[in-house]
Amino acid sequence: MSTFQASTLNAFALVVISTPIIYFWVVKPYVSAYQNALNQIEYISCLDPLTKLANRRLISVHVGKTLANAQRHGLHGALMVMDLDGFKPINDRHGHEAGDAVLVEIAQRLQAIVRTEDIVGRLGGDEFVVVLSNLGRQSDEALARSKFVAKRLLDAVVKTVEFNGETLSVSASIGIRFIDLDPNITADTLINEADAAMYQAKKAGKPRAVIFREQILLPEMHTTTS
Asked: Where are the transmembrane segments (predicted)?
């Protein structure tokens, strides 16, 4: 065998031997880091930057999954749109830092109430969304559970927030759209109808919750219809 052939074989052997090492030491860590960065970017893009809650994009995805789950397995759910009452005066009197502090605190309270399989999001401004899934196969049982959660949310919001020595307070109006087994309903329709019920709650008097197309009395609240 010539010196050239021997050198060629040695080079080839070195490539064969070193390729797995290069892959595991160089290529794989780079690919993993790159994929982790992409995942982090995707995750951040789905969050509201202030409250770290789900943004409109992630809310829409989750509502779609809840709808599919309801229609496939017969498990009801509920979508709630919440708007804070008395929030604008806080911004006007105490500044936007105070308003941001209230939003962050309210966001944490809402998250503490719902289950891990549920989702709390921020649509923008002082408007939030709560999506409850797997509330049961019986509609009356699911409605009772959604009313119970709505009452807890309202009670959590009215608790005061301390900021720079000031005691700040807001309340909330909630519109609830029950997620039934209607195969023709869409995520956008659910959000729009819950939003309509929320405005009806504001008109009827604050704080309160209204269930879309239903006349249901929530604990310690007046009966209203949308």
From this structure: 6-26
- Give CA–CA dist 122/97, Å, rounded: 18
Q: Residue 144's domain is classified under what CATH number?
A: 3.30.70.270
Residues 99 and 141 grouped into a single domain: yes
CA distance 215 to 206: 17
Tokens 């290529």 locate to 27
The verdict on residue 220 lying in a domain is no
Please state, in angstroms and rounded to a whole number, the distance separating the CA atoms of residues 99 and 88. 8
Q: Name the residue with higher pLDDT: 74 or 80.
A: 80
Catalytic residues: 126
Q: What is the extent of the structural domain holding 86?
A: 56-211
What is the rounded CA–CA span in Å between residue 221 and residue 205? 10
**Identity at 10, one-letter amino acid code:** N
For position 41, what pLDDT does the model report? Answer: 45
What pLDDT does 92 receive? 93
In-domain check, residue 224 = no
Compute the chain's Rg from CA coordinates. 26
How many structural domains comprise the chain? 2
- The residue whose two tokens read 């408007």 is 127
Predicted model pTM: 0.75
201-206: average pLDDT: 86
Q: Does residue 116 share a domain with residue 24?
A: no
Residue 100 lies in a domain: yes
Cβ atoms within 10 Å, residue 213 = 12
